[in-house]
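Internal tracking record. Fields below are filled automatically when a chain is submitted to the structure queue. Please do not edit lines marked as system-generated. If the sequence contains nonstandard residues, flag them in the REMARKS field before resubmitting.
Queue: standard
Priority: normal
Entity type: single polypeptide chain
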Amino acid sequence: MPDNGYTPRRTAALFAVTLPSFRTLLAAVIAYGFLAGFAIHALNSTLAAALVYGGAAGIVAFTFPAIIAALVAATITSRKELRSQAKYFLSTAAVCSVLVSIAYAAAVMLANTTGQAILLLANAMVFIVWYAVLTVPLGKKWMRALPAAAVHPVLSLAFTVALSKAGLMQQAVGLAFWLSIPKLFIAALILLAALWLIFYLLNAPAKTNFGINAVQAAALFCAHWLRGGKGLEIALDELGENTTTTIGGVAFRNANGKLKGLFLSPNVHYGPFGTLGGSEFPILVASQLEERLGCTAVMFHGTAYHDFNPVNSNSCRELAQAFEKAVRACGKGSPLAAAAASRKDGMRATLLQFRRDAFITLSPPPYPNGDVDYASGAALANAAERKFGKAIVVDGHSANRELAMWTAGSREYCALEDCISQLKPRQGSAFKAGFASDGLGEFTRQQGVGKAGLKVTVLEINGKKHCIAVFDANNTTPEFRGECSRLLKKMGFNGVTDVYTTDTHSVNAPGTPHNPLGRDASS
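SYSTEM-GENERATED OUTPUT FOLLOWS
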């Protein structure tokens, strides 16, 4: 298949953590309210009274405002996503309830106007916390964020004053509710101005150097993390740069000339994570070609590193069109094929030869598993083309190791180059080829399986049976790869047989940047 230019853009991966479930958070908020009320009440009363009255008062003063604020904020800002986003609002409310309880304890111990000022300031900070969370991580408009942010501090003051008047909380706080509200909002406005200044200072360098709004980019990242939105692609497009790469592949036809299957190897990296950029290219590109050409399309991982991450997932159409054009431009193929493998210092290269053209896969154990970078891949392909016709070199990406990236001239590169030098052109013979695929829908991305599932190619060449299994995954553990190889040999495959992955980053998330196949025991 001829090479065709394709122009992606570049991105980088980001990392974050995940939240507990809504039920866990709810239980934690209730438990904290009880314990905080008990602890504060115990400062000036018996343990028995603190346990009975303090715990109940803590739930009313700290838990109720948090839960109500979370529900109101969710209703005001995202009624359509109330169920899916409830835990994010409740987690914010939980943090704020901790802040309020600490300030209340300080107010009780000081028992003067300073303590009252601390409590008012804490509630003003609660307003700021809510506003910052609603506008940045949750990406809400400021017009909706402002009233939603005011709910928690107002309720907190109201419940605190009411309980104090009823004698269920410490009288030392001594706040007057209606006089406190104006003070609360004045303090909140001052803090809001300070927050705006912080945002401005944070955004200025990014705006000057990269031409993007850093705060907006952070909000879009959080939107993707929480809801799978793709708005971040627009922001990252400003950071990307045009680059040209190559694609290659092999088209298999039956005796009547009808396409049976395709090997596709774009020198593009399937990242950065989730549904962003090129992360889902193995399924997006393959499914488009399978629909248009009526055959099985097997996507391999080309020799490309993270600097070849496409920014926009829609560019998969351009890549699919480039492959389709190349397939349709192919002339009459060869009915003959040959296969071979070579090893050097633990590295392995396998060869499928059609006429004089070569399709070479690299298996790096016991070396890295990092990606083979574009320059190294191009150098290895050039080395192969000194003996063969056209040569396509792909990275098997199935050796799970945490080592630094290596480049041309390194020990690892030299071992791979030696492997390729050992491969010699062979006399071809008639062959048979079969393709099968399974979406593996019973497994999830968290278990390391992408939407393209598993695609298997079986070849019979000169009496030997060869099998190439490609998982839509981001690497494999050594145990998983070893077990797969053992099972394939047990099935009678005695030729070029190996397990590869596409290196899709769709199975990776901010909280799980390293998710090789086999890490989850259930997979």
